[in-house]
Amino acid sequence: MELEKITDYDLGKPKRWYRDACGTALAMDLVGERWSLLIIRELLLGPRRFGEVRAALPGISANVLTQRLEGLEKAGMLRRKLLADHPGVQVYELTRWGYAAEEPIFALSRWVAGSPLHDVTLPLSNTAFMLSLRTMMDRGRAAALEGMGLSFRVGGEPFRAVIADAMLSVRRDDAAGAEILFEGDTDGFKPVFYGPEPLAVTVPAGLVRVTGDIDRAQAFVDCFRLPAFIND
């Protein structure tokens, strides 16, 4: 008995498909083109305007970004909508299925972080940095900080984070009254959270500004480290 053929690939432009029943192959068909996964990454913390996505991905042209957004929309991963409080302003947001790509993206990030080819000196968007905290946090260490509320200003962009069930939830929000506030840019934050020096060194050096209990802030920073490369 033959299975019914139900696939109909039409994402608005000619493309070579793997034509393979494996889910990995189909995932590559849908998001394997350059920039596609990074566009999804930039939308994981909520809707963004076209210009905001492009600014976060400085190597992408307006034409290519338009093509990728159209393809992801036709694939059912994102949609366009108008902001209710800003008439005429269009944003792109992930669908429920699009948001489900979060875990595969995080898993890929954790896996590749241990590669000797991982160059942490390369540029990183504000969203990518905040998602890296969610991805790389040591849950064992974070358990002792349950309920901690944190604010971040990354390149002037506000974020809020909370530790719950030894996991870090992150959203865009100017959270007043958080226990700890970190301020800086991604170039400064990377060595603070993924380098060897404590806040007692990195704060006076001007890499980051911290408001709140410095010991509690250090305990949070200690929850992050990059894995060593293992190739048995």
UniProtKB/TrEMBL annotation:
Q: Record keywords: Transcription regulation included?
A: yes
Please report the stretch or stretches of sequence annotated as the HTH hxlR-type domain: 22-120
The Gene Ontology terms for molecular function here are: DNA binding
Q: Highest taxon of the source?
A: Bacteria
Keyword Repeat among UniProt keywords: no
Matches recorded under InterPro entries: HTH_HxlR, SCP2_sterol-bd_dom_sf, WH-like_DNA-bd_sf, WH_DNA-bd_sf
Q: Which UniProt keywords apply?
A: DNA-binding, Transcription, Transcription regulation
| Protein name per Swiss-Prot or TrEMBL | Helix-turn-helix transcriptional regulator
Organism whose genome encodes this protein: Stakelama tenebrarum
Lineage of the organism: Bacteria, Pseudomonadati, Pseudomonadota, Alphaproteobacteria, Sphingomonadales
